[in-house]
Specification:
Structural class: alpha/beta
Strand order of the largest sheet: 2-1-3-4-5
Number of strands: 5
Helix content: 25-40%
Radius of gyration: 23 Å
Distance between the termini: 49 Å
Order of helices and strands: HHHHHHEHHEEEHEH
Oligomer: single chain
Mean pLDDT: 84
Shape: flat
Largest sheet: 5 strands, mixed
Low-confidence stretches: 1-20, 33-40
């Protein structure tokens, strides 16, 4: 259920939206509500701030414009809007992990879409941050498997060590902490997503080690399978190590590179062509 503050403020949003210049009191309440981010939920409205307004400079770099062209080349000219999500991701990575208003407007311009369509996408998907985040954006999984395996202890450890609360950023701009819903790594709970990377099987001790490594500019590299369990295990092997799939060398199936050269596909042969 919404808090009384949220209910009161939501009723005033409409009046504020209709007004050319919302009163300072309304702006303050909206900004407070926007910053109260619970379980990865950002509010679907924009508040002008010194670092995020219509005058905030943003344009893709020359190198990223090449990526823009590569992305748009995947779609027919009349479906440029299909590139909104990958272009928003590109803009966010260029701009330090978050999307200013002008970045969304630039994507709208490139995709020949009304700006509101891009705002809708950016405010719907939690992968997009519309307020500044730290260099190391920590998303802590707080859903059931992680919770029962000590996620709240990990959260408290990070809050104590960094001196911030859930949803806040350290004064030096290095870390932002946010508790989120399931990140899909339940077998290795508790875990966090640090920018793009998964650090799993955490304890309070290894959590502090991870934070200190980040402060030194040397976050531990990912393991062979794209994540890093912090207890020394490989991927999601149990305490007994690998108990199945024990081949010494993985044999990659041979696939005919010319299998679709004719442009026609016989559904009955799909499994064979895909090496099933």
């Amino acid at each position: 259920m919404l808090s009384q503050f949220a209910l009161r403020t939501s009723k005033r949003v409409f009046a504020a939206t209709a007004a050319a210049s919302p009163s300072p009191a309304i702006t303050s309440e909206l900004f407070q509500l926007q910053q109260t981010r619970s379980m990865a939920g950002q509010k679907p409205f924009h508040i002008d701030t010194p670092e995020n307004n219509d005058s905030t400079p943003f344009d893709f770099t020359e190198e990223n414009y090449e990526r823009v062209a590569h992305i748009l080349a995947k779609y027919p000219d009349n479906y440029k809007r299909a590139g909104i999500i990958p272009l928003l991701d590109l803009a966010q990575r260029q701009h330090g992990g978050w999307l200013p208003l002008t970045a969304m407007q630039k994507v709208a311009q490139i995709c020949d879409a009304p700006a509101v369509r891009v705002y809708e996408v950016a405010s719907f998907y939690t992968m997009f941050n519309r307020t500044p985040v730290g260099k190391y954006f920590i998303q802590l999984c707080g859903t059931t498997p992680c919770m029962i395996n000590g996620a709240q202890h990990i959260k408290q450890t990070m809050m104590d060590h960094l001196g911030i609360k859930d949803g806040e950023t350290t004064k030096d701009g290095l870390f932002t902490l946010l508790e989120v819903e399931c990140l899909g790594s339940c077998a290795n709970a508790p875990m966090i997503q640090l920018n793009d990377d998964y650090y799993e099987c955490l304890t309070p001790e290894t959590t502090i080690q991870l934070l200190e490594a980040c402060k030194a500019g040397n976050p531990p590299p990912m393991g062979k399978w794209g994540s890093l369990p912090m207890n020394g295990q490989v991927s999601c092997e149990g305490p007994k190590g690998k108990t199945s799939l024990k081949w010494k060398e993985v044999k990659v199936p041979e696939i005919d590179s010319k299998r679709f050269a004719s442009g026609e596909v016989d559904p009955a042969t799909v499994k064979e062509h895909m090496a099933y």
